[in-house]
Amino acid sequence: MAEYRRSVAVKIMSQWKGLTLTELLSAFKQAYVDLPPPSYVYDIGPFILNNDLCFSMKDNDKNYCDGILNSALYLERRNDGIILLDGVKYIYFVQPLRDNIQLVFLVDATHYVTLVKKQYPFGIFLSMDVFTQGRSIYSDDIGQSLVFPVTAFTSGLNYLPELTYVFGFSKRIFLLVCSVIIILAAVISCVIYKTYFSLIYGIYDQGLKETRAITENQLSFVVSGGLFFNDADIRKLHDIFYAAIYDSLTGAYSRKSFDDSIKDIIGTGDSYLCFFDVDRFKFVNDNFGHLFGDEVLIYVVHYLKDKMNGFNFRIYRFGGDEFAIIYSGELCDLIRILKGLTDFEVGGLRCSCSFGVAAEKECTTAEALKLLADNRLYFSKNNGRSQITWK
Known about the structure:
- Its cofactor is Mg(2+).
- It catalyses: 2 GTP = 3',3'-c-di-GMP + 2 diphosphate.
- Its EC number is 2.7.7.65.
- The chain crosses the membrane at residues 173-196.
- The chain has 391 residues and is an alpha+beta fold.
- Among the domains are: 2-112, Beta-Lactamase, CATH 3.30.450; 247-389, Alpha-Beta Plaits (2-Layer Sandwich), CATH 3.30.70.
- It has eleven helices and 16 strands.
- It has helices at residues 2-13, 21-34, 65-71, 109-117, 171-216, 231-245, 255-262, 281-288, 290-307, 331-338, 366-382; strands spanning 43-50, 53-56, 79-85, 88-98, 101-108, 124-132, 135-138, 146-153, 163-170, 271-278, 312-319, 322-328, 344-346, 349-351, 353-359, 388-389.
- Helix 5 (171-216) crosses helix 6 (231-245).
- The protein is rod-shaped and about 155 Å long.
- The mean pLDDT is 80.
């Protein structure tokens, strides 16, 4: 607005000297015709005042001269204020030109507020109260729907009326933006969770595969050299694992595996523990050699694995020719299979085994169960060997 007035003033000043009052008024009117106001200027006038005379510079404006002369204060100096014209409150601006001549502009308070609000982006609502001499002449209720409001005053600015501005963020827009942010955060969280879950699951799954590769000696489970172990490491770990769990000669489970397993059958109600050994095994080793003795042991284990395939059982080697079987199922099936080792042949040599079987339900502890099976084994050996004792 100031730039617009400055343009008009420059045009007038270029022909100021030597003009009579009538010619000056005519020049002002022509200047405002030649320089139409920009769209953002919502004003009425200007009006030129000279003592008790008032002239409108725009032919299409209402003649508010009487109201201005009766209501405007301090016309002799630059100032502003509020006047009521035809029931509408206006902000007026007085700009002295020379002795006894003033330029007066009127701005509708509602238009003024609208003009100021248009300067702010969508979503930022400006709530404004306009005051003069401590009383409000314009107010809106936007301030009731703002969040994070900030208040500013213009009481110290002599080129503006006394105004109170309340700036803030629209509560509706604020809640909408917050909702969008929350939804986006939830979506991003889901994507991140899915990504990291897939990554962690992939690591976990590869760990399981490499564990199976170690326990089952299946290098096909290892992808691209392995995540935790390479092929060479897996082979070494498998050898260590196998040596700890299995007997390297016969393929039966080791004594350590037996100690871990025997504790689990107490209380099952249908499990049996069988201790057995090869009769006169020392004689076989001494007369036919340890390699032949190894063949006898291998035969015994392979026979049991073959005949007991499909049953719930495990064979353990304690050392030398001493073995154990943990079996769950019918006793008659176990006795039938064991009878095949009471008299068998390996390499043309007649061999036999003696057995002692104890039912888990006969004992309350693992130690008692082992002692009972061991006693029945020795009963079989002392009673002529090549037999099964189960009661």
